[in-house]
């Protein structure tokens, strides 16, 4: 009975499927498990990593050459352990902490295996057995940042043209460090500015090129040995607008002058000024000052400073302008006036007017001047605030009557004296 049941089980399809799975699992365990038989594998092109480079830098040293940057190692061990070894999982490190001086070094390296693999594999050989290094003195210097913009500007307007200023860099200097022989070759950090037809100030952060004194870029091999304090620099290309701006003066008219009989020449009559395009568009003139025409007779020249606001730049270079004024169609006559009066006389003093007569210059048209007599003139001196003693006091010349558009030119004074009042008691 039992034999029939067993025969039925062994002859069934399910039994054969289960049996095949069990056998396959046993074979896998035998092949992939802890096979007492050892195998070998060679891993090549394992990258070499340098350890404690910062410590070397603190000592003023730097690695300038490495004989090999990869190694080849042959391992022996179980198949399972060896299967986990590759150039990506095996690490090779060279410790630099023992280096204290310049020169050539040949250092051993440490092999670091993946976690858990060290119990199942061992190292048979390595090539090379040491890593050759060249140690140099670490050198540092500051170099200027330079660059040039050659891309031109956009077209201007009928009022102004665009103007390119000198590029500005921040920082203006950068620090380069590395082997002395390489650092000594670096002359500048050159910034290529790849822009064109600018119409507004351009600001950007750009990379730079390390160049030697002849303008040649350092080689890739040299650049790999250098460290720089900045990777990018802030570049500003100022764009302004420039236009000619006329110089002008204002007049205080009097004594017969008008805009029609007053003529002015200014040299220079204009200067070239640059600034922000919006601001330069509104700058239609630069006033030099005001001329009081009652202080001159028929012509005069005066020197004025050319003052430009801080937000503009004077490109012409002139800092002063000569202004010549001429009054045409009028004449200047001299009149002797003795009709002298004072106002605001100090009550506590005795007043003596020393000046008895004053010659005054009067400007106007000939026919108006011919109609004047001394009776038309009155001279008034304001004595407010005067104290004891003699004083020269400015006066105002008044012309009474219907005399037309005439008036005095120049400035006049009279002399007076104030004495204390004697107390009769």
Helix and strand topology:
Blueprint: H1 2-10, H2 13-32, E1 39-51, H3 53-58, E2 61-66, E3 70-77, H4 79-82, E4 91-95, E5 103-107, E6 110-112, E7 121-127, E8 131-148, E9 161-164, E10 168-170, E11 173-179, H5 180-183, E12 188-192, E13 202-206, E14 209-211, H6 220-223, E15 227-228, E16 233-237, E17 239-252, E18 262-267, E19 270-275, H7 277-282, E20 286-292, E21 299-305, E22 313-314, E23 320-327, E24 331-337, E25 340-343, E26 349-353, E27 358-364, H8 366-370, E28 377-382, E29 389-399, E30 407-409, E31 413-420
Parallel strand pairs: 1-4, 8-12, 17-20, 25-28
Antiparallel strand pairs: 1-3, 2-8, 3-7, 4-6, 5-8, 8-11, 9-17, 10-16, 11-15, 12-14, 13-16, 17-19, 18-23, 19-22, 21-23, 24-27, 26-31, 27-30, 28-29, 29-31
């Amino acid at each position: 009975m039992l034999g029939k049941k067993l025969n039925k089980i062994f002859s069934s399809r399910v039994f054969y499927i289960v049996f095949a799975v069990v056998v396959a699992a046993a074979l896998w365990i035998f092949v992939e498990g802890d096979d007492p038989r050892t195998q070998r594998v060679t891993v090549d092109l394992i990258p070499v990593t340098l350890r404690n480079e910062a410590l070397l830098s603190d000592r003023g040293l730097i690695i300038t050459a490495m004989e090999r940057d990869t190694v080849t190692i042959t391992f022996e061990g179980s198949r399972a352990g060896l299967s986990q070894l590759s150039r990506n999982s095996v690490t090779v490190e060279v410790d630099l902490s023992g280096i204290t001086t310049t020169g050539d070094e040949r250092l051993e390296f440490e092999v670091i295996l993946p976690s858990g693999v060290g119990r199942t594999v061992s190292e048979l050989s390595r090539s090379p057995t040491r890593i050759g290094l060249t140690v140099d003195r670490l050198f540092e210097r500051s170099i200027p940042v330079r660059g040039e913009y050659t891309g031109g500007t956009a077209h201007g307007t009928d009022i102004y043209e665009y103007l390119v200023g000198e590029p500005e860099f921040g920082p203006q200097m950068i620090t380069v460090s590395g082997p002395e022989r390489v650092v000594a070759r670096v002359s500048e950090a050159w910034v290529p500015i790849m822009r064109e037809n600018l119409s507004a100030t351009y600001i950007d952060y750009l990379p730079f090129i390390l160049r030697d004194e002849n303008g040649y870029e350092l080689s890739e091999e040299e650049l790999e040995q250098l460290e720089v304090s900045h990777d990018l620099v802030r570049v500003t290309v100022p764009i302004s607008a420039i236009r000619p701006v006329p110089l002008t003066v204002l007049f205080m008219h009097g004594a017969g002058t008008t805009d029609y009989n007053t003529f002015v020449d200014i040299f220079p009559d204009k200067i070239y000024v640059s600034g922000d395009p919006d601001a330069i568009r509104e700058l239609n003139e630069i006033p030099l000052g005001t001329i009081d025409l009652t202080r001159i007779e028929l012509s005069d020249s005066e020197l004025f400073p050319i003052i430009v606001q801080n937000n503009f730049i004077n490109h012409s270079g002139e800092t002063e302008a000569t202004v010549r004024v001429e009054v045409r169609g009028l004449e200047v006559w001299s009149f002797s006036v003795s009709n002298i009066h004072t106002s605001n006389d100090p009550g506590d003093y005795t007043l003596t007017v020393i000046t008895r007569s004053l010659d005054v210059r009067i400007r106007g048209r000939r026919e108006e001047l011919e109609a004047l007599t001394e009776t038309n003139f009155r001279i008034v001196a304001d004595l407010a605030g005067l104290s004891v003693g003699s004083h020269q006091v400015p006066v105002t010349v008044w012309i009474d009557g219907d005399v037309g558009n005439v008036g005095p030119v120049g400035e006049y004074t009279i002399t007076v004296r104030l004495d204390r009042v004697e107390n009769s008691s």
